[in-house]
Structures are given as C-alpha cells and as structure tokens.
C-alpha cells in the first residue's frame, strides 16, 4: 500500500532517479497483473515493456501528486496494453492453443482440481472490463475502495460489477464449487 | 452463487509461477530510463503553447464555436450530397442488370452470415452461416436445405407456408431490391440520401449512399451505408447496423461490413459450398410427421390449452442465490419480474434460503426487479433496471425496449411463457418427430418422442396419465467423438391445480458442458409455485405500460 511519505517521490522535479524509483516500485505488480490477464509469460513481458516505455514517454503529462494516482494511471496504461495484445489475433490464437493443451494435460491428471489454465479460461469468457476488475481484486488483492479510485467510480459500483462478473463465471466454476450429483436424486414423486 | 470468498480461494489455489525474470527487469529498466532521457529533448515540464492558450476561457469558447461552424458546414454538405453526379437510380439500374451477387461479411461484431450468394432472377440464395451451417433456398420451388455443422444429414423444409400448400409461380425481384435494399419509392419506411463522393487511396472514386429506416417511434435512423464504384456504378461494400439478436454485445450499437462481387454464374448447389454429397436429406416439416406423432401432439396441445390463463407463478431456487421470477398471466396480458438475490454480504438484497413461495413473494415486494418483461394491449415491453437501486452503476442506465406484436397468441407461442413452456416444450421444436416404442431410458408409463436431425438429437418423455406433461427431456449433441448427452431436464413433484390440471412443482437441469464453448458441467434446480387467480386478484397497475416507461430510456430496434 502506498503511504503518504512515499508520495514525496512525485513532489520533486522529475528526473531519472524518480523514474527509476517508480519503476522499481511497480514493476512486479504490473508484471503479475499482465501475466494474469494474458496467461503466457512472453506476452506479459511484452505488455509490461510497452507499459513502462509508455510511462517514461508520457510521465511529464502526469499531473497527479500521489502514488495512488500514479498507480491508477499506470494500471490504465497496462490495461490498454493488455487489450492491444489480446487484439493481436495470431498471438491470441497461440495463447488459446497453449491454454487448451495445458487444460488437457491437467485433466489427464486430476480432474476435480481447478488449475490456473481452467480458471483463466473461465475468466476469458468475461468482457475485458470485467477481466480487469477480477485481476485487480483477486490477483492484485486490491480493496473495492482502491479499485473504485483507480477506475474512477463509486465503491458500490465496483462491488456490483464484481458480483455480476462472478455470477457469470458460476457455470464454468460449478464443478469446482459444487460436488452435488443429481443422478442420486430420486425421480418421481 | 459464487461469493468473493469462494472465488478468492479458487484464485489462491490456482498456482502459477508469476515471479518476473531478473533479466527482463534489468533490461527494461535501462530502456525505460533511456526513453525518459530521450524525451527530455522533446518536451519540457511546462505545458506546451497550445495548452497554455487553451487554458484561457475566451480561446476555449472561440475554438469550440469554430469547431461547431465547421462541423455543421461539413454535415450539411454530406447530408445534401454535395459534389456527386451519380444518382441512386443509376446505381439501381446497374445492379439490376447483374445476375449473381456474392457478399462476404466480416463478423467481428456478430451477424448470422459470413458469405452469401444470391441469384434473384432464379430465386436462389446460398449462405454460409457464422455457426458453420450452410443453407440453400430455392424460392421458385419453395425448398430450403439446411446443413448443420458436423451434421449427419441435410434437413429439408419449406421456407414459406402457403395456406393451400400450393407454391405460386415465382416472380423474380429486381436484384437491387433483393440484394442491396428496398426502393424508397415503394417502401416508405426506408429513405436513401443522395451520394457523397469519397476519394480512395488508390485514386478510385467511391460514392457513398446512406439508407435510413423508420423505427417504431417513427424516426428515421441510419441502418445501412453502401459504397459504389463510380466507374462501374456497382456497389463494392456495405456497412449494416446489426439488430439486437445478431450482436455479440447487445448493449452496444454494432455494425457489420460486407464486400460485393458480381458475376454471371454462382454455386450450382449446396454441395458446391462443401457439404458432403452422400448425406441423406431428411424432411422436417410438420406435415411430414407420422400419424401417431400428430395424434400425440394433438392430445398434448389440448392439455396445454386447458391450463389456466389467469395465474401467478413463482420460480426460485433453494440451493443457492440466483434469479427469481414472479410471473402474472391474465389471458392476453403477461408480466414477468426477474429479481436477483445477492449474497449475505448485502442483507438488504439477500433472500434467506430455503424459502417458501410466500416468503419469496414477500421478499420480492421490497425489491426492485432487475428486469421486467410485459405484454399488454399487444405491445411487448422489456425494462432493464440498474441494480441494486441504491448503488446504481455510474455508467448504467434504465432502458425500456418496446415493440408491437401481431397478437397475444403468437406472442406466447414464440416468447418465454413459464411454466407452460417447461411442461409442454414440444410445440416450438422443429425436426422430424417419431415415437420410440421401446426406450430403456423412458420413465415408467411415459411415451418417448424423438427428434433426430442435423447435429443434434432430442428425446422428450411425455406422461399420458398427467396431461402429457414432459417430465423428462434429453438433448444430445453430435461432435467428432459421436453422440453425447448435452443437457437433461426433469420435472417432478407434480400437483393438480384446483384438482384439475397437472403442473410440476420442481425442475432440475443438468448441463454437461461444452468444451468447444468453454462451459463446464453444472446442475441447477428450481421450485415452481402456481396459484390460479381471478380477474380481480391481480395487483393494481401490474400491466400498466405507461408506469413501466417512467424513468427509462427508450430503445427501439
């Protein structure tokens, strides 16, 4: 969590040292975010590179004064880079192929365990905005309030959007969540 | 219901190596700092001149006014079709001389067809669907052939049902009308704007014609744009507004684009588009059904028609939080309120389960429904509310879609009509039906009706001792691995309404999932409560269309 003391990073004139400190502070978080959104490491590294290069190019236009606002700005850039990556068809198809293969391998092992490939495949069924929220909430472990501040809407709105996204995921996750087996039910009256 | 806690556990359990590589971190760090240093030479920390000028209100207002003047001038020029000598009549004339038209669509935003071939002079249409299906229609003989992806046969039916069964002599449509759009002189609902010249990068000159269609509110809106090569006078591409049902995301206004090619000859038949030549052709029209199936359907239809026309139905699930339907039917009026129970973190919107029908009704009366579907005076309403009301999403809006239906009977035939549809689902199903004499899967005393065509098979099990209610159904899907169970539905806890008609108090759905669509196995069950009502027992204003319009943005499609 960024604290008030750390905001001093952004209160001094911008120089290479400041950019380096910001980079060091956020590199891992942005990498993990991109990896959870894009599944394969190579695509994630590309998106991280584009994000930080874009940040370095445009940081003079950034008018925020707190680390929280910087983080929000950085995640917006990262989300845009992720979207661009998803729209690159060849890359996306390659990723889906790899995903299918990993799920197949996992199913040959233990069918009842929901691994990362299967969970990612389920998340892919959501729209990009919902995927962004799921990544921030459950993989970046941000609070509703933090996400609301980053996305620029009310906390209640975030709760509802995440709630709706989870409901959409329900059919795909049912096997992991519910061991109920209807064949044992008694047909008739 | 998947709660945040449950999902967090799944997310935590889905392990992945997410440690970044040091080499990437170091390499990128150097690149980032180099990028920052190089940008020093290109920009200063002060806002640039343009930004400094635009901070003054007088310059901002002046710039805005200038932009409006330029915009109005350009729009005026575009709408009046300045600068072109090519008329719509000339284009229509050129198109009408063409024999075959081939349309290729991009389907990024949806749409049913990826390719179409049309020969209006012979009444022939062939199309490749985005779901993999291939369709051939001969309007001159009133025959349609339909091949479903992975299907083991070709289905044949009649695209137009003529009352006396005789197909009238085919009258060819002009190619323009059949392929591009209607003639505004004969179709007052559609208006074309005169063309606008657009120079292409390769030097060619295209003229764009815009088509506006009158919607249910009587307003004309842009539905189609056609680009015409001014040298050949033939259309080269089209952009069409997708209807709600065709869109990938029905919340967005979406368009599909297509390219035209004109030729003297087209595909000879459905096989020319890749359908295997040795597939059998199966007739699926109702008139082709065996006599015993017709007799059974007549009995089931009589039982369905005897079901009360005035009732309240509550449909809910007691094993998890989910959608809850409260339905009122008063002969030709219908109202379906759909609620959503949030988990216990939101006590105001939470319904404690298991719940009785009375408990659900009492809870629903304090809630704002997520959506309302209503039919009153032959107008269908569909209202989507933001939900929950006191945490309304900033970017959501309350919308109301309206359209007129020809009559209530037709509406109930084609629209969702629970719980009647669930009990007698056979009537909306196509396909050649047959009665299976000895089916080991049939519940005791039930009759098995089977539809098998294309890439699917459906079995319905009707109970003749209880109003021919379909107490079980199984959907099968064919893939390259053979025929597999896709879904099963069971109805049980059958009760009598006022000692007369039977109705099922519980429904269970098993969905086996579809790997190709990324869906998994799941089971869901519902309770169904039906109360027969009298005319004066309906809540006041429940079928009031004006009330439903309040506070909603109208969407007309």
Q: Termini distance of chain B? A: 33 Å
- Provide the CATH topology of the largest domain in chain B: outer membrane lipoprotein receptor (LolB), chain A
| Low-pLDDT regions of chain B | 42-55, 72-83, 391-395
Proportion of beta-strand residues of chain A: under 5%
Task: Tell me the fraction of residues in β-strands of chain B, as a range.
Answer: 25-35%
Report the mean per-residue pLDDT of chain A as an integer: 76
For the record, the CATH architecture of the largest domain in chain B stands as: Clam
Structural class from helices and strands of chain A?
mainly alpha
Largest sheet geometry of chain A:
none
Query: How many strands appear in the DSSP assignment of chain A?
Result: 0
Greatest interface (CB-CB under 8 A), with counts per chain: A-B, 66 and 58 residues
Strand order of the largest sheet of chain B: 19-20-21-22-23-24-25-13-14-15-16-17-18-26
Which range best describes the helical content of chain A: under 10%, 10-25%, 25-40%, 40-55%, 55-70% or over 70%? over 70%
> What integer value in Å does the Rg of chain A equal?
20 Å
List keywords for this structure.
heterodimer, A: 189 residues, mainly alpha, Rna Polymerase Sigma Factor, Chain: A, Arc Repressor Mutant, subunit A, 2 domains, 8 helices, disordered N terminus, disordered C terminus, B: 557 residues, alpha+beta, outer membrane lipoprotein receptor (LolB), chain A, 3 domains, 14-stranded mixed β-sheet, twelve-stranded mixed β-sheet, 26 strands, 20% helix, 35% strand, globular
Put the structure in a nutshell.
Chain A is an all-alpha fold and 189 residues long. Chain A has helices at residues 16-38, 41-58, 67-87, 89-109, 116-124, 128-139, 144-151, 155-177.
């Amino acid at each position: 969590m960024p604290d008030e003391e750390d905001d001093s990073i952004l209160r001094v004139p911008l120089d290479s040292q400041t950019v380096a400190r910001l980079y060091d502070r956020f590199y891992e978080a942005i990498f993990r975010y991109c990896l959870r959104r894009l599944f394969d490491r190579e695509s994630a590294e590309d998106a991280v590179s584009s994000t930080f290069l874009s940040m370095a190019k445009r940081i003079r236009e950034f008018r925020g004064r707190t680390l929280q606002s910087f983080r929000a700005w950085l995640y917006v850039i990262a989300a845009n880079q992720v979207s661009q990556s998803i729209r690159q068809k060849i890359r996306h198809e390659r990723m889906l192929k790899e995903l299918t293969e990993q799920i197949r391998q996992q199913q040959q092992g233990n069918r009842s365990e929901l691994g990362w490939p299967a969970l990612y495949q389920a998340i892919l069924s959501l729209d990009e905005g919902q995927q962004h929220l799921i990544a921030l909430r459950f993989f970046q472990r941000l609070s509703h309030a933090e996400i609301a501040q980053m996305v620029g809407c009310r906390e209640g709105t975030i709760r509802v959007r995440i709630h709706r996204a989870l409901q959409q995921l329900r059919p795909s996750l049912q096997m992991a969540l519910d061991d109920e087996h209807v064949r044992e039910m008694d047909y008739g009256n | 219901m998947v709660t945040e806690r449950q999902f967090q556990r799944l997310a935590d359990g889905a392990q992945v190596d997410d440690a970044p590589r040091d080499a990437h971190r170091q390499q990128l760090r150097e690149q980032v700092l180099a990028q920052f240093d190089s940008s020093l030479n290109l920009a200063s920390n002060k806002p640039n001149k343009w930004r400094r000028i635009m901070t003054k209100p007088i310059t901002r207002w002046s710039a805005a006014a200038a932009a409006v003047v330029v915009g109005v001038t350009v729009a005026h020029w575009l709408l009046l079709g300045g600068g072109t000598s090519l008329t719509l009549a000339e284009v229509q004339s050129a198109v009408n001389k063409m024999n075959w038209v081939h349309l290729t669509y991009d389907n990024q935003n949806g749409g049913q067809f990826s390719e179409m071939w049309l020969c209006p002079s012979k009444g022939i249409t062939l199309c490749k669907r985005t779901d993999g299906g291939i369709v051939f229609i001969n309007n001159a003989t009133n025959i349609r052939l339909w091949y479903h992806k992975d299907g083991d046969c070709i289905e044949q039916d009649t695209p137009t049902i003529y009352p006396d069964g005789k197909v009238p002599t085919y009258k060819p449509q002009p190619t323009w009308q059949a392929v591009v759009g209607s003639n505004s002189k004969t179709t007052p609902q559609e208006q074309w704007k005169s063309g606008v010249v657009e120079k292409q990068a390769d030097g060619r000159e295209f003229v764009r014609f815009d088509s506006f269609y009158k919607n249910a509110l009587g307003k004309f809106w842009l539905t189609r744009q056609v680009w015409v090569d001014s040298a050949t006078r033939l259309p080269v591409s089209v952009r069409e507004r997708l209807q709600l049902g065709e869109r990938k995301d029905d919340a967005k206004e979406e368009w599909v684009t297509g390219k035209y090619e004109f030729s003297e000859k087209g595909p000879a038949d459905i096989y020319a588009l890749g359908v295997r030549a040795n597939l059998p052709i199966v007739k699926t029209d109702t008139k082709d059904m065996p006599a015993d199936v017709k007799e059974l359907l007549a009995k089931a239809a009589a039982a369905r028609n005897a079901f009360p026309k005035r009732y309240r139905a509550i449909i809910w699930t007691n094993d998890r939080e989910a959608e809850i339907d409260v339905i009122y039917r008063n002969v030709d009026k219908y109202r379906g309120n759909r609620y959503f129970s949030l988990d216990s973190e939101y006590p105001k919107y939470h319904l404690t389960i298991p719940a009785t029908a009375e408990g659900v009704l009492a809870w629903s009366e304090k809630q704002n429904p997520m959506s309302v579907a209503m039919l009153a005076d032959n107008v269908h309403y569909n209202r989507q509310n933001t939900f929950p009301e006191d945490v309304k999403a900033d970017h959501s809006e309350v919308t109301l879609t309206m359209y007129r239906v020809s009559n209530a009977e037709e509406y109930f035939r084609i629209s969702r009509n629970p719980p009647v549809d669930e009990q007698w689902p056979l009537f909306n199903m196509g396909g050649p039906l047959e009665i299976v004499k000895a089916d080991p899967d049939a519940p005791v005393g039930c009759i098995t009706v089977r539809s098998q065509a294309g890439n699917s098979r459906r079995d319905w099990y009707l109970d003749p001792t209880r109003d021919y209610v379909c107490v079980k159904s199984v959907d099968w899907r064919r893939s390259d691995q053979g025929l597999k169970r896709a879904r099963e539905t069971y109805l049980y806890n059958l009760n009598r309404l006022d000692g007369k008609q039977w109705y099922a108090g519980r429904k269970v759905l098993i969905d086996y999932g579809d790997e190709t669509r990324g869906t998994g196995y799941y089971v869901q069950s519902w309770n169904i409560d039906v109360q027969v009502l009298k005319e004066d027992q309906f809540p006041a204003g429940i079928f009031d269309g004006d009330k439903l319009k309040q506070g909603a943005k109208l969407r007309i499609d």
